[in-house]
Amino acid sequence: MSKPAGWLPDQSAAWSAIAADYEREFVDPYRADAVNPLLREVHGLPNQSEGTAADLGCGKGPLLPLLAAKFVTVHAVDFAEQMLHHARQRCVGLNNVRFHDASLTDLRFLHGQLDLAVAVNSLVMPDVRDIEAVLVQVRCCLRAGGRFLGIVPAMDGVHYWTMLLLDRALRRGMPMEAAEKNAAHLAEHRYFDFAFSRFSFRGIVQHFWQPFEIPWRLEKAGFRDVRIEKVLLPWDHFRLREDFTDQEPPWDWFFACRAE
Ligand SMILES: C[S@@+](CC[C@H](N)C(=O)[O-])C[C@H]1O[C@@H](n2cnc3c(N)ncnc32)[C@H](O)[C@@H]1O
């Protein structure tokens, strides 16, 4: 199976290195207190007597048991060996899940085979040309009418969180400069490149998405009927949550679209 060129091999090693700590370091959209339209859509799919799905960038495989219950065959793809190791353990006894240690930038082994593709927080390649290459690969994997569902990390969600923190600091009487410093510190701005929407942490560099970018890139790659909806994240992933529980929590973006 082909492995990625360019700087993606470094990213594969960095994702592997974080696998053991993944749940501690990353916001979890699968928790019962999140509002996750992707889970709603997948639960709503009929149990298929035929049908093939893929979890692209499956990580430690939280979605695989549900997909395995819905589809005859499920392909679990990830380029981080340690993530796949945990995903395999989670799926012991599920005989219809096949694992692939591969980059999403080359999915030729799945072309023309999928009825559903899912990518949860894995369309994060730091170079947007890689993201665009992946989207074309996903479209080639789907049969005509096949669906593509995903979640992408939201840049505007970080701006919203920053706004809440800034207003909180000002309400407490901080001068503007101190209030901005306080908000930037609490929202961890040191890890972000806001101009080009990147988040760098423990060697992993992730692209964050703006809502307008989602239909833009999906339609460029040939997808149609693009729909987006907020994934409301659990408040207790965020500091000082007790000051904000009457507000909407920060979000990521869910998308749904189809291949023609
Ligand atoms: C934030 S994690 C999400 C994992 C999983 N989908 C979940 O929801 O828990 C992103 C995953 O995408 C994988 N990934 C990122 N870029 C990839 C690429 N170019 N090819 C294959 N996997 C990739 C990483 O290894 C990691 O497991």
Broad CATH class:
Alpha Beta
End-to-end C-alpha gap? 27 Å
| Sheet of most strands | 7 strands, mixed
Radius of gyration: 19 Å
CATH superfamily: Vaccinia Virus protein VP39
Order of helices and strands: HHHEHEHEEHEHHEEEHEE
Q: CATH architecture, please?
A: 3-Layer(aba) Sandwich
Number of strands: 10
**Quick one: overall form?**
globular
Bound ligands: S-adenosylmethionine
Summarize the amount of helix as a percent range. 25-40%
Query: Low-confidence spans: pLDDT under 50, at least 5 residues?
Result: none
Describe, in plain words, how this protein is organized in 3D:
By secondary structure, the protein is an alpha/beta fold. It has one domain (8-154, 203-235, 249-259): Rossmann fold (3-Layer(aba) Sandwich). The protein has nine helices and ten strands. The chain has helices at 8-18, 22-25, 37-44, 64-70, 81-90, 128-141, 155-171, 176-186, 213-220, and strands at residues 52-56, 73-78, 97-101, 114-120, 142-152, 192-193, 198-201, 204-207, 223-232, 251-259. Strands 3-2-1-4-5-10-9 form a seven-stranded mixed beta sheet, with helices on both faces. The protein starts with 7 loop residues before the first helix and ends with a strand.
